[in-house]
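Appendix B, record 7
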Amino acid sequence: MASSEEIYVMSGATPIPLEITYPDTPKGMSDAEWHARVDLAAAYRLTHFYGWTSVVYNHITLRVPGTDTFLINPFGLTYDEITASNLTCVDLDGNKVSDDNWPVNRAGYVIHAAIHKARPDDLHCVMHTHEPFSQSLAALNVEVVPMMQEGCQLFERIGYHDFNGIVLDEAEQEALTGAMGDRNHTLVLKNHGLLTAGSNVAWAFVRHQLFIRNAEIMLRTMSSGAQISYMPDEIMRHTRQQFEGGDAQAGAAVRHPEWPAFWRMLDRVDPGWKH
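C-alpha cells (predicted):
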C-alpha cells in the first residue's frame, strides 16, 4: 500500500484529469464519429475488465451522431481486442457502411436496430450482455426490485421481454420495442440477459453496472432468508429523479464523474484502446 507521502508525490507530479480528452481525429473522419468510436471502445474494454463478456458474443452499439448508422463490434473479436479504429458500422437496415471486411452478428443487428429505430431521440447507446447475476435474475419469475439507493434509478424504468429463441428474426423487434416503451431504459430479457440504453455511452454503461450490482444484492438478500427492507415507491421515485436530474452528482466537475475515472483506469491497463 502506498504511503501518504507517495500519494502526495504522485498526485502532485501528475495531476489527475477530471475530464476526458479525445485523441486526434484520423484524417477523413468527422470528430463526431471518432469521439463516438473512442467512447464505445471504452465500453467494450470496461465490459472485459469487469468480466461481463461471453468470449466474442453480445454487443454494445452507438449511433454515429447526426446519422442513421451505428457502430458495433466486429463479430469474432474478444472485447479486449476492440479499439476505436476497428469498430464497424452499419445502417438501420443492417447494411455495412464502413470500409472494412468485419462480419456483424445477426442477433446484434436485430436487437440493437430495434431500439435505435424506436427511440432515435433519447437512446443512442444500447448495451447487451449475458452477465451471470443479471442472467440469474432473468431466469426467475420475479420482478426486479431496487435494493439500495443506486438501484432506485431502475424504478419504473424496466421492461420485460419473453424468451422466444435467439433473436434472429426482425419480426421480434416489435416485441422488443414494445417492452422498452417510451420511457424505459432497461430490459430484462427473460432467460436470456440484460439490455440497458442511454443518450450516450456513459449512461448506458453506468445503468448496466448498477443493474448488475442491484441484481447481485437482490439475489444475495433473497437467499439469506431474512426479512427484506423494501423502500416505499415515493422514496424510490424521488431518488430516481435525483439521479436523472443530476442532483446525485452535485459538486462533480462533469455530469458523469465516473466516466473520466473509467478512462484513467483503462489507460493504466492498456492505452491502446483509444486508437
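Remarks on this record: The chain has one domain: 32-274. The chain has a mean pLDDT of 93.
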